[in-house]
Design brief:
The protein is mainly beta. The protein has 8 helices and 29 strands. The chain has helices at residues 2-21, 30-33, 200-207, 211-215, 217-223, 367-375, 382-385, 400-408, and strands at residues 39-43, 49-53, 59-61, 72-80, 84-92, 108-119, 125-126, 132-138, 149-150, 163-167, 175-181, 184-190, 193-198, 227-231, 234-235, 237-242, 249-256, 259-265, 273-280, 301-305, 311-315, 326-335, 352-357, 363-365, 386-389, 394-398, 414-419, 428-432, 442-449.
């Protein structure tokens, strides 16, 4: 029996050897592939159209569970050698903290009032080692936490400033200040901050409020509506203040008999802080490149700016000419251009963001960003989408998924590129457009025919 099994096994082995010795492995099955073999190709000649466009609107405060609440706010009257003038001021609603103050009528005496504004060195932009002047006003118009506010919104203030202060910012070094707690005072180190002594005349009525008004935010805000921080000097950069946090406050220093005390009024997540920001492009380099609705200007240069500044729109008009192809990779290359008028202190936008316009009032993020954030929620979407400055001094944006939708006719052919976190970041950049003679924007496409 065993001999029979061994003979059968030997016969099978000989048959297999004969089979493969008569067929070259490299050609095995070639008759099946010859008519359907995949063909991967490359092109960078697809037509691109681009333009620099003004920003439609920038929401700086919005109510609701998913509302718009920012921590960092740009401040200053910035003279940019390429982009012109940017003016950023700040309106803020200030309230009592978790424990209302205990100012005692007849015994408590107001000594001084200090407004403290914490710096954000990372988000300050341009040249800031020079004198700045700030004016502080008391608001006469209320902010409504239930309303949405845009960067174009402004509010009434009382005519006389409660402080005018000139200073040279120190955004990196901590300070030593006196902290008063109950009956004791001690020196403490605090993060970098601007401290402004205010006129106590405005604070006197607040200091004399009754305990019920001080304990109720609604009643208090009817009496004291907030402050406005206005730049009063023109500078070559913008500061950034952290408006929400323990190190930004309106501090009242007062005496109760021989005891020295203090109380901090604060800004919390439920209190509106509104960035009022305008750009003036008249006479600037960028002025001749900005396209108004229905207009297409010179696209040899493109301009992108944070805050409420200009954006870039890209159109790929003939994307559907590739219909029926599989898009393996679509990468948009945006070279950074340094103009003769520019200065190296103005660092380029850190991260480019991309959206697709649905209607006049709504848009969605690019598919490639959506997939990156959904598939890798703990990672930076830029690791997969790109949009950061490379060693080649350009931005490389992976738009493969969205471009496939363009090719299939499932999406419009226009994308908008903006600075990510634009509400809090003032950076800007100049890019080579599709018609730039030496550094044009390009779309590199690898596709498969099937």
């Amino acid at each position: 029996m065993n001999k029979l099994i061994n003979s059968a096994f030997l016969l099978l082995t000989i048959s297999l050897i004969a089979l493969f010795s008569c067929n070259d492995p490299s050609s095995l099955g070639s008759d099946l592939l010859s008519g359907d073999q995949l063909d991967t190709e490359f092109t960078d000649t697809l037509t691109l159209r681009a333009r620099t466009v003004p920003n439609d609107s920038l929401t700086v405060w919005g109510p609701g569970v998913n509302g718009v609440v920012f921590q960092n706010f740009a401040f200053g009257d910035f003279q940019d050698p390429v982009f012109g003038r940017t003016v950023s001021s700040i309106y803020a609603q200030v309230v009592t903290n978790a424990s209302p103050p205990k100012f005692k009528k007849g015994t408590s005496v107001l000594d001084s009032v200090v407004l403290t504004l914490a710096y954000n060195a990372d988000l300050s932009y341009g040249k800031i080692d020079e004198p700045f002047t700030i004016e502080v006003y008391e608001m006469s118009e209320s902010l409504d936490a239930k309303k949405k506010y845009l960067a174009s919104d402004s509010f009434s203030v009382k005519p006389t400033p409660i402080a005018v202060h000139t200073f040279v910012p120190n955004t990196k070094d901590s300070l030593t200040v006196m902290e008063i707690n109950a009956d004791t005072a001690r020196s403490v180190r605090v993060p970098p901050q601007l401290r402004i002594r205010l006129d106590t005349a405005f604070a006197g009525p607040i200091f004399r409020l009754d305990s019920m008004t001080l304990a109720n935010d609604t009643s208090f805000l009817q009496f004291f509506k907030g402050i406005w921080l206005k730049p009063a000097s023109q500078n070559a950069g913008l500061l950034s203040f952290i408006m929400r946090g323990a190190n930004t406050n309106l501090r009242f220093y007062y005496s109760d008999g021989n005891a020295k005390k203090s109380y901090d009024f604060r800004i919390f997540s439920g209190n509106p802080v509104v960035l009022h920001q305008r750009n003036y492009y008249g006479g600037s380099v960028v002025e001749d490149y900005i396209s108004q609705p229905g207009e297409n200007r010179n696209d040899s240069l493109l301009f992108m700016q944070g805050l409420n500044g200009v954006n870039i729109e890209f159109e790929i008009p003939y994307a559907e000419s590739l219909k029926g192809l599989i898009i393996n990779k679509a990468e948009l290359i945006l070279p950074i251009v340094v103009l003769p008028e520019d200065n190296s202190i103005y660092k380029p936008v850190r991260q480019v963001y991309a959206t697709v316009k649905l209607t006049d009032t709504s848009s969605v993020i690019l598919d490639d960003i959506f997939y990156a954030t959904r598939s890798y929620p703990s990672s930076d979407f830029g690791d997969y989408f790109g949009g950061k400055v490379t060693s080649s001094n350009d931005y490389r944006l992976s738009i493969s998924a969205h471009f496939q939708r363009m090719v299939s006719g499932d999406s419009g052919n226009t994308m908008r590129f903006t600075a990510h976190f634009r509400t809090e970041r003032a950076a800007r950049v100049v890019l080579g457009g599709p018609t730039h003679s030496a550094m044009p924007a390009k779309l590199l496409i690898r596709y498969t025919k099937y």
